Amino acid sequence: MTLFQIFIPFLIAPFVPLIGKKREGRDLGMVLALVPFLLFISFLFEFINLKPASITPEVYQWIPSIGVDLAFRSDGLSLLFGLIITGIGSAVFLFAGGYLGRGIETIKFYIYILIFMGAMLGIVFSDNLLLLFIFWELTSFSSFLLIGFKHKYVASRYAALQALLVTGLGGLSLLAGVILINSVTGTFSISAIIADPSVIRESSLLVPIIILILGGAFTKSAQVPFHFWLPNAMEAPTPVSAYLHSATMVKAGVFLVARLNPVFTGINLWNDSLMIFGGTTMVVGAFLALKQTDLKKILAYTTLSVLGTLIMLTGYGSDMALITMIVYLTAHALYKGTLFLTAGAIDHSTGTRDVRILGGLLKKMPFTAYAGIIAAFSMAGMIPMVGFVGKELLYETSLSGEPALFFGVLFAGVVMVYSAIQAGIHPYFAPEKETPLSPHEGDFTLTAGTVTAATLGLILGVSASTLLAGMVGLAVSPVAGKTVDVSLGLWHGFNMVLFLSLGTIFAGYGLYTVREKLYLLPQVYGPLEYLMPSKLYDKALNLLMFTAKAQTSFFQNGYLRNYIITIFATALLLVGGYFFYHLDLTELVIDPSMEMYEAIAGVVIIAGAIIAAVANSRLYAVMALGITGLGVALVFILYGAPDLALTQFSIETLSVILFVLAIYKLPKFLKLSGKNSKIRDLIIASSMGVFITFVILAVYVHEHSSELKDFFASESLPGGKGRNIVNVILVDFRALDTMGEIMVLGIAAIGIYGLVKLVRKGG
Amino acid sequence: MSTLILRTAVKYLIPGMFLFSLFLLFRGHNEPGGGFVGGLVAAAAVILYTLANGVEMAEKMLHVSPHKLIATGLLVALVAGITGWIAGKEFMTGIWLDMPIPVIWKFGTPVLFDIGVYLLVTGMVVKVIFTLADTREGGNQ
Predict the structure, then answer these.
(1) How far, in Å, CA of B112 to CA of B78, rounded?
(2) Which residues, numbered 581 to 610 in chain A, qualify as contacts with chain B under a Cβ-Cβ cut-off of 8 Å?
(3) Alpha carbon of A653: minimum distance to chain B alpha carbons (Å)
(4) Does A230 score more than 60 pLDDT?
(5) Tens of pLDDT along B12-66?
(6) More confident: A85 or A493
(7) A406 and A529: one domain?
């Protein structure tokens, strides 16, 4: 069942162009939004009927030899994420059709985003670490396509590559961590690992495992110092930002941490890292949000802050903190998805996202305004929104934790209120100003999703003690690794936490009144600039490109002769050096006696080689090489290898013809090598010749008894039904090699064609 | 190079060369020969024709374009490989027909594979020769 649910998006993706032929733009969005919506309904039914005691993983064998199964597990945590992914997905799918309009680009968008949704569902439902990793990488990959969606812009391509490299690096870290876990536990099954965490906890590899896993989670969830890719990823179309970069993909890191929390919780390295990195991200994100004027950037930096908060809460480790994490995560997905989409609607309708010139949209865009305002209330933590419940819990949790983190939480809380006012209140209530387009409300595809999501935030807040508590209860138990009783309420009376809540709201409003000054804040402070991770990223990338370029132009400078010199010299130094060091000259058997015809073949070969070397024209050289080749064919015949001889004859004939045709196209004048390079070439060539000669002599002495030889000889007729062993090896025993070789031949032909024709066309 | 003698000689040589290449292809399983060398001989026949009559005539004589030969060869080889797979064995396992076939004696996927190699090698060499020998502007497509 889960397998089917996860693969539905992948199955539908190839048919999007077909559907897109019949229905374009917003109609296409309406049709495709059914996919996440129906999945949402199915997850909802599962969630309602979930019995935590009787969860059994769904396992299909995939690659049994290395323990990779298509194993899925739908517990409360998976299903909550599944609901978020498909729920916000429905809104985004619906929105994108109206937002992007008609055209081929929209079709591409839906293909990418379907793949992304499938991958994301794969992550949250996987019960196999390697399977999870594969889906993890698939989200990075589809995110690359989506961030770079407007691929004609440099900024988009830069941001896409950056996100791919940063999250890709994290992916490698995660893979290494997963492999280490496997080496310790002998399994990739998440259920099995959680069932018996002591194996990992007591292993000597515990520290590297934790560091590697966190490396994956922190890059994906944009924790400081890997946070810089997320704001840049706002180059993506707004529906992408709403979906990937607030509601789902960036939460994959949080999910991973939550999923593996029962294994590692209580280990200081785990909890402290989560608290330190999460707390730092929370504060840095909030601080950087202060000066933003672009709606999407405001939302991006506050998303950073929230991601930090979620990681930090997992680090606290108490039941209370984990409950807070789940509530906060749900609330954030609902309000942030909404705010991103309202920002998109505003952008679509006014042509700008700059809060400084937005205002007075309340009457012009009433539905968007409703959704934006409700979502902003939730973000600011106003009663009776689900955000309020989250914020109350957050304050309560942090009051009992580290004082430094408590002040961080308060600061982030204040900025959250300030940003909520900017993103969800200001555009509707501020005095109206001139915008590039005259504002108007979009059709229902642009409003239906946001209105629903915002209202859901309200419903969950009002029903905190029943609906929300039930949901959170199911989701939090897998994170805690035990059954957790959850009792939530909207109203806790007049206490310290409520006072703090009110305080942050006033402080946030205070910040809003001085916003013009905040916009002028510098992005970085003096010497800190040199330590900025984004700068370091650029430097590292430049260094990589520089090294690659230098190395390539040194080794692959386009001169065939230099390639051969490099290859020969390397072989001589490394292989030859080792070979001659271990060579026992007395062992070699040199038999000087030879027959007349052998001598003739030898003379022909040597004569050909000498003529080729001293020839003053390419044509002579080629002919002389041909003579050498035919001499070698003669040797093959003399020593009973007719197959080789036959092929050698044909090849020599053909290559001479090919050479002649190619030389015909070359410039007439031939620049001959100078004396020095002649001496160098002579030394390298003759050393190589000597080396190969000794190798052959040595092989003759140390002839290994090979089982293969006997196998091929005895199996050729019964197994391969042929008496010609060489051919049976080629087309049967080693057919896969031949397959690869003929593929190379075909590609080479296309390459030659391209080279010759392109050069000719280019002048 | 386009002399009357060569042109006339080629006319009679070519059928023989093609036949010989097929002979090499099918005897390859038991005697020296095989798809690779057979393909080379077939290509040599086309080259000879090209030298005598030019690329344009050679293209007409061949009827199929060489890159289609390459693609077909690869496809045939792949089909030969997949057949074993479909029959429930490992990829590339040889499957043989039990009944004897006239002329080529026995038929099975390895023979089919060799035919693929033959086609690809012929197409590859011919493609390269056409590309290099073509003096017309705009290519031979």
Answers:
(1) 10
(2) none
(3) 8
(4) yes
(5) 999 999 999 999 998 888 888 888 999 999 999 999 999 888 888 899 888 899 9
(6) A85
(7) no
Pairwise CB contact (< 8 Å): A742 & B73 = yes
Out of A665, A749, A756, closest to residue B124 by CB: A749
A460 shares its domain with A545 = no
Q: Hey, is the C-beta of B38 within 8 angstroms of any chain A C-beta?
A: no
Read off the DSSP letter of residue A266.
T
Chain B, 97 to 136: residues with Cβ < 8 Å from chain A are: 106, 108, 110-111, 113-114, 116-117, 120-121, 123-125, 127-129, 131-133
Residues of chain B positioned with their CB less than 8 A from the CB of A642: 32
How far is residue A410 CA from its own chain's centroid? Answer: 34
Average pLDDT for A186-205: 92
Whether B81 has its CB under 8 Å from any CB of chain A: the answer is: yes
- Residue A526 shares a structural domain with residue A508: no
Q: Do A724 and B43 touch (CB under 8 A)?
A: no
pLDDT in the model for residue A562: 84
Q: Is B33 left (phi over 0), alpha (psi -120 to 50) or beta?
A: left
CA distance A326 to A335: 14
Q: Which chain A residues have a beta carbon less than 8 Å from that of B133?
A: 661
Is the distance from CB of B35 to CB of B112 less than 8 angstroms? Answer: no
Q: Does A738 touch chain B (CB under 8 A)?
A: yes
pLDDT above 60 (res A763): no
A742 located within any domain: yes
Crossing angle (nearest 10°) for helices B109-133 and A642-665 = 20
Give the per-residue pLDDT at B141.
Answer: 41
Average pLDDT over residues A52-72: 86
pLDDT of B85 reads 82
pLDDT band at A516 (very low <50, low <70, confident <90, very high): confident
The residue among A22, A17, A25 whose CA lies nearest residue A99 is A25
Whether the per-residue pLDDT at B1 is higher than 60: the answer is: no
CA–CA separation, A456 and A438 (whole Å): 30
Of the candidates A302, A239, A313, A331, the one whose C-alpha atom is nearest the C-alpha of residue A271 is: A313
* Confidence class for position B109, pLDDT limits 50, 70, 90: confident
- Measured between CB atoms, which of A665, A724, A760 is closest to B28? A724
Please tell me the distance from the alpha carbon of residue B11 to that of residue A235, in angstroms, as a whole number: 66
| Number of structural domains in chain A | 3
Q: Check residue A558 and give left, alpha or beta (phi > 0: left; psi -120 to 50: alpha).
A: left
Task: Indicate if the pLDDT at residue A690 is higher than 70.
Answer: yes
A365 and A499 both lie in a single domain: yes
pLDDT average, residue stretch A649-672: 80
Task: Specify the 3-state DSSP secondary structure of A722.
Answer: coil
Q: Judge whether A722 is closer than 8 Å to chain B, CB to CB.
A: yes
Is A386 among the domain residues? yes
Distance CA A378, CA A468 (A): 15
The answer to whether residues A488 and A532 belong to one domain is no
| Interacting residues of A613 by C-beta distance below 8 A, sequence separation 6+ | A685
CA angle B86, B90, B91 (to 5 degrees): 70
- Whether A618 maps to a domain, the answer reads no
> Which tens digit of pLDDT belongs to each residue from A425-477?
999 998 888 888 888 888 888 899 999 999 999 999 998 888 899 999 999 99
Do the domain assignments include residue A429? yes
Which residues from chain A sit within 8 angstroms of residue B139, using beta carbons?
A: 757
Confidence of residue B140 (pLDDT cuts 50, 70, 90): very low
| Structural domain that includes position A758 | 708-763
Which residues in chain B are closer than 8 Å to A731, comparing Cβ atoms?
A: 29, 34-35, 110-111, 113-114, 117
pLDDT beyond 80 at A303 = yes
CB within 8 Å of chain B, chain A residues 651-670: 651, 653-654, 657-658, 661-662, 665
